[in-house]
Specification:
mainly alpha, transmembrane, Cyt_c_oxase-like_su1_sf, Cyt_c_oxase-like_su1_dom, disordered C terminus, Cytochrome C Oxidase, Chain A, Cyt_C_Oxase_1
């Protein structure tokens, strides 16, 4: 059985896809270790320079002052050239805006001037991100306790702490709290930015904020009280509370469309395509998932597959990709590799992703043709995933060296690689043989964390570490950002790997028609490793919350004095901090 298992292409591809983020993590570890070594060298150099500055003689201080004035001197603009305008009559300077590289698809240039972020908009965005962090910590604290319950199922006997109530609290709070709040906050920043226009209405932005918060808070309380929709996974909030959420999203859509309508740019940048489409789709998803007209018998099962998968792919994934098309070029300080690849990925994801919900119900009573369409569409998802991944990685081209010193780019890279491996692993899991082994096992839990955590959450962390310092002017502690990254990455790899191995063994036992209890017993060590990985992930979230706090508080920057001005400033600071003995 084992030989035939590893001979299956679906299993082989899954193993290969899991290895991609693992190998990437190892490469980043080597790069970061070297960077830490260089940082220690710089700190030693800083200490040596401080020691030398303390011993500067008055003559040396005067020399630095004289040199500082010399370096600050600027020649008047017309002293050498006169008052005539600068011209290039011979045409010597050419192609200064040309990227000298071969493109598979022509790049569509879009010149967008930076818009000024008003304090009101900055406050709105930070509040969305702040509450996103809050919901992340609460949701994953619940998730941490649920992971412990797999190891110690008798940890409590309180009804509102039961697994059946806490599990939807965890999933819905991650969905509609953490990820949705962060994405909407970023959308309120990106849309005005690339449209070169002010947000249409700050008041409507706050209305979205309050409505979404009310939905998550009331929905969570109702779930813990045992009041739920009972209609399927990820839609356990009852309809009155999800109506509040839908109203908030509707206001968001109107606000964004009115902002784009007032744009001062000729073209609509690809980020706006993805973001607005995602907002439109989530409204459709909520209507399909909560209107009762077609939810009878198999109809409800089909709706559940549609709702669950479109929520992930056409809300979270779609909007995050739109944000990636803005923030990755911003962070790398270069344009996206190919505008056309972005549009190709946009339309093919709409074409294929909207058809794949039923691949969760292979070998069910759903018509065979519908299952086959879902499998074929899952394979079709290779097109947008490969197009998007290629676009992002080629944007990195020429900037890979920045990974050594950047604390944000590792989050981008891991998010992109998980986008490739996690998405294609979903395609492989849709094959009939692999679905036969893994369906109804913990493999689905592993896959969901590979995507919602490895892709969505890592990308949102990358965007947070990119944007918040630009809004506040305050950097997070780089050491703790590194700890956050490694705990989250290693934790999720332990989490998904242990569950995938255990679930494969469980599925094989079921196929061999062994007693169900055997599959429970065999999962015990893998659930322990799940708890270990989950604990690392949870700790990383606490560190992320601390880093977010530091980004909205003061953070001194270490600067090695090199210029005369910096040396004189350091001299003055060192004199002011000299030890003064008490009387």
């Amino acid at each position: 059985m084992n030989n035939s298992l590893f001979g299956e292409s679906g299993v082989q591809l899954t193993l290969l896809l899991i290895l991609i983020p693992i190998l990437a993590g190892l490469v980043i570890a080597v790069i970061r270790t070297y960077g830490t070594y260089k940082d220690l060298q710089i700190r030693r150099e800083l200490q040596d320079i401080h020691n030398k500055i303390k011993d500067l003689t008055p003559e040396e201080v005067e020399q630095y002052k004289r040199r500082e004035k010399e370096l600050e001197y600027r020649i008047p603009e017309n002293e050498l050239s006169g008052s005539l305008p600068v011209m290039d009559q011979k045409g010597i300077i050419t192609n200064i805006n040309t990227v000298e590289e071969i493109r598979a698809i022509p790049h569509k240039n879009s010149e967008v001037k930076d818009a000024v972020v008003t304090p009101q908009l900055g406050k709105l965005v930070l509040y969305f991100l702040g509450f996103a962090v809050l919901w992340l910590v609460i949701a994953t604290t619940v998730g941490e306790y649920l992971g412990i319950k797999f190891v110690a199922p008798d940890a409590d006997h309180v009804s509102w702490l039961s697994f059946g109530r806490l599990r939807p609290v965890h999933t819905n709070m991650v969905f509609w709290g953490w990820a949705s709040f962060a994405m909407v906050g970023f959308a309120y920043y990106v849309i005005p930015r690339v449209s070169n226009a002010d947000l249409f209405s700050i008041k409507l932005g706050w209305a979205t904020f309050y409505l979404m918060n009310a939905a998550v808070l009331l929905g969570t309380i109702s779930l813990m009280a045992g009041i739920n929709n009972a209609g399927g996974e990820y839609r356990e909030y009852i309809w009155p509370f999800m109506t509040l959420f839908a109203l908030g999203i509707g206001i968001l859509l109107y606000n964004l469309l009115m902002t784009i309508a007032r744009r001062t740019t000729q073209e609509i940048y690809v980020s706006n395509w993805y973001i607005v489409a995602a907002v439109m789709y989530v409204i459709v998803i909520l209507l399909v998932g909560y209107l009762p007209f077609w939810q009878h018998g198999l109809g409800e099962t089909i709706v559940q597959g549609y709702y669950m998968h479109q929520g992930v792919g056409m809300w979270f994934m779609f909007l995050n990709l739109g944000l990636m098309y803005y923030f990755l070029p911003l962070q790398l300080n270069k344009p996206i590799y190919s505008y056309s690849l972005g549009i190709l990925a946009f339309w093919t994801q709409i074409l294929f992703y909207t058809l794949i919900g039923s691949h969760h119900f292979i070998f069910s009573a759903i018509p065979w043709w519908m299952q086959t369409v879902a499998i074929v569409a899952s394979v079709g998802m290779v097109i947008p995933v490969v197009a998007g991944t290629t676009n992002f990685l080629l944007t990195f081209n020429g900037s890979w060296y920045k990974l050594k010193n950047s604390y944000t780019l590792p989050f981008y890279l891991i998010g992109i690689l998980f986008y490739f491996s996690g998405s294609l692993q979903g395609t492989v899991e849709a094959f009939r043989f692999t679905n036969l082994i893994w369906h109804f096992t913990d493999f689905t839990v592993a896959h969901s964390h590979m995507t919602m955590y490895g892709i969505i959450t890592f990308m949102l962390w990358a965007f947070t570490y990119t944007l918040v310092p630009r809004l506040t002017g305050k950097e997070p502690p780089k050491f703790w950002v590194g700890i956050h990254f490694w705990l989250a990455l290693i934790g999720v790899l332990i989490y998904i790997t242990s569950l995938m191995i255990g679930s494969t063994e469980k599925g094989l036992l079921w196929m061999a028609k062994k007693p169900f209890i055997e599959s429970v017993v065999i999962m015990a060590p893998y659930w322990l490793w799940r708890a270990v990985g989950g604990t690392m992930m949870w700790i990383s979230h606490l560190i992320f919350a601390y880093n977010f706090y530091k980004m909205v508080s003061k953070k001194p920057e270490i600067v090695i004095p090199r210029t005369p001005k910096e040396i004189l400033k350091a001299k003055k600071q060192l004199q002011n901090t000299e030890f003064i003995p008490t009387k």
